[in-house]
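In this supplementary section we document a worked example of the pipeline. Step one takes a protein sequence of length 93 as its only input; no multiple sequence alignment statistics are reported here. Step two produces a three-dimensional model, which step three serialises into structure tokens for compact storage. The input and output of this example are shown verbatim.
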Amino acid sequence: MDIDLIKLHNHGVDKLDISSIYSIPDSYYGTTGIKKLENIEVNGYVYLSPSEDDITEEVDSIKCTIKGNMVLEDSISLELVEYPFSIEYDDKM
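The serialised model returned by step three reads:
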């Protein structure tokens, strides 16, 4: 996921909408049991910390919801199993 943080600094806004649909390349799974991770829906914002000048502005926090389906390999039968997930992510930098 690439987020262009320059928009926060150049457009004079205090938050950046990062809502989109993302796909994770197969090469990221490595040797895990995950077989597929596509169409991951992210809804949320990246917030900029308040500052008196433009030089010291920094990312303050990220708040978002991440939803999607993982296709996993069952460790016993090796059958593919779809696993829906939903994550509330709230991180202060």
